[in-house]
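FW: tagging you since you asked about this chain on Friday. Here's the raw sequence from the shared folder, copied in full. Didn't touch anything.
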Amino acid sequence: MDAPKEIFLKDYKKPDYYFDTVDLKFSLGEEKTIVGSKITVFPRVEGSSPLVLDGRDLKLLSVREDDYHLDSRHLTLPSLPSGTFTLEIVTEIYPQKNTSLEGLYKTSGNFCTQCEAEGFRKITFYQDRPDIMAKYRCYIEADKSLYPVLLSNGNLMDQGELEGGKHFSLWEDPFKKPCYLFALVAGQLESRDDIFVNRSGRKVSLRIWTPPQDVPKTAHAMYSLKAAMKWDEDVFGLEYDLDLFNIVAVPDFNMGAMENKSLNIFNSKLVLASPETASDADYAAILGVIGHESHVSTVLIHIEIVLTFGCHSVQYFHNWTGNRVTCRDWFQLSLKEGLTVFRDQEFSSDMGSRTVKRIADVMKLRNYQFPQDAGPMAHPVRPHSYIKGAEVVRMYKTLLGSQGFRKGMDLYFKRHDEQAVTCEDFFAAMRDANDAEFANFLLWYSQAGTPFVKVTSFYNPEARTFSLKFSQEVPPTPGQPVKEPMFIPVALGLLDSTGKDIPLSSVYHDGKLESVAINDKPVYGTVLRVTKKDEEFVFSDIPERPIPSLLRGYSAPIRLESDLADSDLFFLLAHDSDEFNRWEAGQVLARKLMLSLVADIQQNKQLVLDPKFVHGLRSILSDSSLDKEFVAKAITLPGEGEIMDIMEVADPDAVHAVRTLIRKQLAHELKEELLTTVKNNRSSEEYEFNHPSMARRALKNIALAYLGSLEDAELTELALHEYRSATNMTDQFAALAALAQTPGKTRDDVLADFYNKWQHDFLVVNKWFALQAMSDIPGNVENVRNLLNHPAFDLRNPNKVYSLIGGFCGSPVNFHAKDGSGYRFLGEIVLQLDKLNPQVASRMVSAFSRWRRYDETRQNHAKAQLEKIMSTNGLSENVYEIASKSLAV
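HL: got it, structure written out here
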């Protein structure tokens, strides 16, 4: 295929024409759908430039202009009236044949849309770009017996009966929006209804639509929606602006959710929940519509991420950050997504444990964003970084404080309501509202890669000063060989020998003494602004050599290397007042231990587990004062992918062997403590979704996972007891995962039992697929191949693909098998998927993107698959982009 033209930010040009109003008419049919559009058009400047409309897979029936040119991607109108005019177009489309799930398509007998980023052009001819904002009216007519519910954006203005058994509905959205926020749903649906009264007294009707049998599973989703609406009013002063808010759950959906104005469309997995069928992670994902990492070994963390692939922030929060103020072009995507993900993170933190949520978010950043930053798909926060984009927004809050950040948000909405704007506009609002200077902060939006920061410290007992020297470097990335120093806020505290924070009053930096006191009172933590390649900060009046607690709360998305000794890290693990850094100290120790043992195994040395590490985890496990979910996180080892990511040449086999060994030895050394943990955290009470209950289950289940690694008959019986006696999906699935670690009859029997029990619940079956796909059992690729033929699997359903294929790619030891079997399997699947759903296929092929990080044998296998994909006729642009960039570097 011809290489598609790559578009750059510098190519952006304002449109020659804008649209004021858009009237759409849909006649939904079983064989075809007729779409009429009536658009009020006005020129940006008077002239003779043609109007070019985007269109894909459309049959043009009529256009109210005699002079036009039509090709496979555009409808061009060269001769147009002067001034404002009305454009009328009628197209014919075929939703029943649309397997890409973009535009208008059929799913489980219902009509549904997905228009972000460029799906609207598959509905009608249009300027399909986010800076074209217009007011929409939508008329829908369909057979009432087949499609009794007809939904679109805005408020319902009219509805009624038509001849021939048909009916109609008319919707009007009074606010301007880009076409990617248009939505339509029609089908056999029922709703859970509720009311939310906002601060101004407006009664907002809330409805969550699902197939009739699933309505009982929407109670938690309704609770989450109302909680989000209340939180947005309390924290940001933002009220919902229409009389109606609809959510629709659909089983076939490429995304996690879509924030269409007033008609959010959600992947079913992010709406439906009951204690029997949904885990704590599912409930948390629905609350935040973002994956929550819970863990049994490394398996459950990856399963929950796989099952919330492409996860999005709470879609309701997009009403203001994305809908009322949207992005000018797709290079500004992080403006709405990064900001909304951050708002969701704050909401979820307020609903549960802030520390645990922060740990989960940082784990996601490290597992997904950092590897991308170091590979051929590296890009700046702009154009499309959700997670790292949220970290950039968080840095504003770290620098300005909560009140300063709120002032910046208020100014942002005041300046830009109903506008399509840029990242620079958000930066300017934060700066101007606080009269602040951020030096080179905007580099976060334009410079790719993860900054690497080294810190060295020195204590002068005579002068009672403590200095910190920072050195930063941003590695080269494709297209950006030379980097400038970044603006890095480093939150820190200094601990004395008793573990208490030392009071701080001033710091000497850049030739001057700067006060860090607040209202002339010393502080116990501060934020340093590191903006140069090399900088030094000197604290005075420090009575003893302190142990620095650096990057508290993970105040910047960087890789940090310090000169802290292991003894210092164990001290921080035991005493740091910043709980995130307590967890981080343990993770640094674990990473160092694992890398050391990997080196030993590569040199055929005997592997010995440091007893101090065992003691450190025993202390955490036995500390009853700590939050139980924090303890569960703290005793969880870094994943295999995270360790491979920091190796010069990734060695999946060695890393897997080391991690398995450490887990088994920890389970052996801590067996009594782990057994006590399981016993003390059981509960026969009715399921509750709250932090204490979730924390108890998380700790019990990580303990069970460790014990399950020992392959002991007594412990197998324990896991079977937990499986059989479980009263909720969280506990049952955790026990299943513990039992599934070891090949054999028990594993086979319990997997069969689980499927037989839940075979009629497709969301639970997806968990079952993912658990088997991610198994570390040798040669698991053949098991996964067999599951492709399972009657419950469907390659056309994105959730099933993410569960089975995505799950398999999340098993380093099998996906990266040295014989290339994992790579061959994925290569075959990508080509099959590309014919059905290019968007999902492109996500799968990205698993090849870092093939150069492995040994020569694995490189050759992976490269062969990428070359095979690239040589295939009719390859989609989506897959071509990922595969070509992966080969080019």
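FW: Residues 18-188 form a domain with the Immunoglobulin-like fold (CATH 2.60.40.1730).
HL: agreed, and The chain has five domains: 18-188, 214-241+252-451, 452-485+487-563, 564-655+668-720, 743-888.
FW: great, closing this out.
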